Amino acid sequence: MRVYVVDDDAAVRRSCAILLQAHGFKSTPCASAAEFLEKYEPSEDACIVLDIRMPEMSGLELQAHLTEKGIPIPVIILTGHGDVPAAVKAIKAGAIDFIEKPADASALLASLEEARAVLRNKPRSMVPQEEVRSRLQLLTDREREVLDHLVLGKLNKEIAESLGISQRTVEIHRARVREKMQARGISDLIMMLR
Predict the structure, then answer these.
(1) What is d(CA 58, CA 86) in angstroms, rounded to the nearest whole number?
(2) Domain 2-121: homologous superfamily in CATH
(3) pLDDT at residue 56 above 80?
(4) Cis bond before residue 55 (omega within 30° of 0)
(5) What is this structure's pTM?
(6) Taking the mean position of all CA atoms in its chain, how far away is CA 120?
């Protein structure tokens, strides 16, 4: 699981990265909400360890933005400015935990295990429609035609006959569609295109 550590304090980002890597997590430090939004890769299982007070966009504002965009990433709040109203707001918005700095390593690791459990239980193809649209734009016209036939349940042979191309060409297009759409199989594609 990748853990995005979003905190404007470089020392916190560094110490979290060391802890996370020592316990087998992939760590991506981000100095701001904007940097997180640039680096976030929706095809990976990930969670976010998020500071509340940051310049430009606060942690709570980023959490609200993720919810609004339908991005299903578990959030753990890690802050030096913990107050009860902020904690209540974060938890009501779906945060897994609210941890005050300096973070107790065992508490943070326990929250990360909870985030991992949340990810294991979520359907893999909960891709926001905005992301599905951007992936569809990567497809060529022919790949889009093959995709349309695939989601109708047609076999490679039937698609080849319908489009006047070889089965091998269909297989190549099919592989490219899966790659560009970041789908594990036909069921993922169907879920995305609902």
Answers:
(1) 11
(2) Response regulator (3.40.50.2300)
(3) yes
(4) no
(5) 0.61
(6) 13
